[in-house]
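Check this.
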Amino acid sequence: MTADAVTDASGTDRAARRAVTVFPVLVLLAGAIGLAMPDALAGWKTNVPYLLGVVMFCMGLTMSVADFQGVAKRPWAVALGLVAHYVIMPGLGWLIAHALDLSPQLAAGVILVGCAPSGTASNVVAYLARGDVALSVSVATVSTLVAPLVTPPLTLLLAGEYLPVEAGAMVTDILKTVLLPVLGGLVVRLLLGRYVDRVLGLLPWLSAATVALIVAVVVAGSAAAIKSAALVVFAAVVLHNGLGLALGYGAGKLARLGAPASRAMAFEVGMQNSGLAASLATAHFSPLAALPAAVFSVWHNVSGAVVAAWMARRTRRAERV
């Protein structure tokens, strides 16, 4: 999502807060439906990659040439964000899986979440936190584009001790469900930008509804195991996300990027494309392995909104002094 798209989609702080508040509620509702009616959604498992493709196509529609110009203007900061994202979150996933002694399926799922690119809502949350939205957009864009080259080998390296990982097949899946839809959306935006601009505000809501459907399908697939695994999965997700936000912010401060950029780094590191993780876990591991991604989809939006509000309040107080 571009910096302009964040402004267009939200309009004001109030509209943006509404978006990040409604999204986790929508995902929670979808999870409850999946838990209550698993049989009704049993046949949807094969549709998860296509649903993710819709989300990524919407992301491509919000991109513009300015996003790539932003990368060229600040290569050092973007490179730092990219390295921090793909080092901190995968590493945390591996450490948490060992520390909590997770079962092989859940461990692989947590690690896969960590190996995914930046979350699609991170730009809006960075905007709410009064962070550097341009940097947030640049890091999210590059992390998504390089995902086919980075996510599979990282998953193989860190999750291979738990479950067999077919990295080659995973590359193909990410190309089909992430890179091609994103590029397709970008091309449509370039060719039909005047028409796309008219519906730009609707795209985040379409993405939110589609991610919610993915969560419902994932939860339905592992409904029988959720009662026994829910507590440990929630603990893993809270630790993963919380430490990711803190270490991402710390990386920005350590590199002396400044306060707004450090706030953006927090969300680009700590928020993941959990829809992609859920899709890959369902296709390559099992529905149970996709459960951490489903829980992450809810939690990182809740925590992101809370942390963003806290950061924005601190910033306003500092400006008054």
About this structure: Residues 23 and 228 are 26 Å apart (CA to CA).
